[in-house]
Design a protein that fits this description.
It is a single chain. With 468 residues, the protein is an alpha/beta fold. It has 15 helices and 19 strands. The strands form four sheets. It has a seven-stranded mixed β-sheet, with helices on both faces. It has a five-stranded parallel β-sheet with strand order 2-1-3-4-5, sandwiched between helices. The protein has a five-stranded parallel β-sheet with strand order 7-6-8-9-10, sandwiched between helices. The protein is elongated. Bound molecules: magnesium ion (MG). The site of magnesium ion has 6 residues, from loops.
């Protein structure tokens, strides 16, 4: 997997060395020799990872990191800080600034490439969500621009072997407001994770009763836990296990002896990233629902109805059965607008939508088809079934008390056209959908022509039968 890597270091020989090693593995590398140069290049070049020296004159790595994470254009880029010291307090400071990990100079190739691969892969997943979110924002849906969500109240599941260590882990997480549940084996872990939500899994590589990496791999395979970050608790001699863990999709790790602050901040960073991804996903679901919903009535729109009808008819063709459609029109809608204003017109449409919602079955699909026109698709209904439902709806609306202005009442009526189709008539879902809607529309036109406030059922092509 190739990726773009930005190497930032004030010492030219360090830059050259890292650049050569990364380029040899076919990574695309660019370099910056100061913090300001990195801040200038990162948003423009959009690297997949930044290797950032801690000690630099002027602006140090911590500040560069914090600035990159504070900028919406670069906040999602993973940052690995490269340090000469490797002190715990320094790691915590970097993690607090938003760094994803640390490498200690001199950096060995195996560790470097294991971390690069893992972080780039995790970024790609996030990129996918970001891209979808961007696409929907181009559709006119505004995405929320909120600060990083708080991790208070989130929950972690910890598979920790040692009881004393578990107590220290729970206390460290509690300091960030993260609640934790302990499990002691893979079976318990899966049961807990699939039954209730969880924002982070801590997995102890010392687990001896079973292979902890098998569990890590299962977490990635299961739908419920696919996107839950996994933080490995490892011994310094667990290097090879860690590398395999990264390849299996683990997100982060912490080495023993556990430093409570480091654990707290690593846990927090991982949960923040998950909450960010959850938010992108929720925004996407919301924008999809907006794209298929009529804002005035809350019903589906024509685009959704056509798409859904097409799939219903395709499954009808495969599985047999019948399906009916109704087209409805609010009679004399223009005169409501003209006499009482557009707000009254909107209120009339909303009243009709509410009445329709009350009358249809759970699995019927209702859409505002356009202007004052509505459509209902009724799977499993014959023309006769739909005619009964249509007549009930017509009466319901004729009986509504609609007040366009205070103290003024106006009688609302609708005309309805009904048509149905059987599996034997469907060759192609899309064509059948067009034909069915056209026939319901013809019946509606007939109902209008015959004086409105009535139901017309189109039995066969061209044969109109008034049902009321
Ligand atoms: Mg330096």
């Amino acid at each position: 997997m190739s990726a773009r890597i930005l190497v930032v270091d004030d010492v030219p020989s360090n830059v050259k060395l890292l650049e050569a090693r990364l380029a040899a593995e076919y990574y695309e590398v660019r370099t910056a020799q100061s913090g300001p140069a990195a801040l200038e290049l990162a948003p423009v070049w959009a690297p997949d990872l930044i290797l950032l020296d801690v000690m630099m004159p002027g602006m140090d790595g911590f500040e560069v990191c914090a600035r990159l994470k504070a900028n919406g254009a670069t906040e999602h880029i993973p940052i690995v800080m490269v340090t000469a010291l490797g002190e715990s307090c320094e790691r915590v400071r970097g993690l607090e600034a938003g760094a994803d990990d640390f490498l200690t100079k001199p950096v060995d190739d195996e560790t470097l490439f294991a971390r690069v691969r893992s972080l780039v892969r995790l970024k790609r997943i996030l990129d996918e969500w970001r891209l979808r979110a961007e696409t929907t924002s181009q559709l006119g849906v505004r995405l929320r621009q909120e600060p990083a969500p708080s991790v208070r109240g989130t929950r972690a599941v910890a598979l920790v072997v040692d009881t004393l260590e578990w107590q220290r882990v729970a206390a460290a997480l509690a300091a960030e407001g993260i609640g934790a549940d302990r499990v002691t084996n893979g079976h318990e872990a899966m049961a807990r994770l699939t039954s209730a939500g969880c924002d982070l899994v801590l997995l102890d590589l010392r687990l001896a009763s079973e292979d902890p990496l098998r569990l890590a791999s299962r977490l990635r395979a299961e739908e419920a836990t696919r996107d839950t970050p996994v933080l490995l608790l490892a011994e310094p001699n667990h290097r090879q296990l860690l590398f395999r863990g990264f390849d299996l999709g683990a997100n982060d790790y912490i080495l023993r002896p556990l430093d409570a602050n480091e654990l707290r901040v690593r846990a927090r960073n991982q949960i923040r990233r998950k909450l960010y991804q959850d938010r992108l996903r929720a925004d996407l679901a919301y924008s999809i629902s907006l794209a298929v919903t009529d804002p005035l009535t809350g019903l589906h729109n024509q685009r959704y109805l056509r798409g859904h009808l097409k799939s219903l008819l395709a499954s009808l063709q495969a599985g047999g059965g019948v399906l009916a459609a109704m087209m409805l029109d609010l009679d004399h809608f223009k005169s409501i607008n003209d006499r009482y204003g557009h707000a009254a017109g909107d209120a009339a449409l909303q009243a009709v939508a509410t009445a329709i919602r009350k009358q249809v079955r759970l699995f019927d699909t209702v859409a505002r088809y356009g202007g004052e026109e509505f459509a209902i698709v009724m799977p499993g209904a014959t023309a006769a079934d739909a005619a009964v439902a249509a007549e009930r709806l017509r009466r319901e609306i004729a009986g509504l008390r609609f007040e366009p202005l205070p103290g003024v009442t106006h009688a609302l009526t609708i005309s309805i056209g009904v048509a149905a189709v059987g599996a034997e008539e469907v060759d192609d879902g899309e064509a059948a959908a067009e034909i069915l809607l056209r026939r319901a529309d013809e019946a509606l036109y007939q109902a209008k022509r015959q004086g409105r406030n009535q139901v017309v059922v189109l039995q066969n092509e061209g044969e109109h039968v008034s049902a009321a």
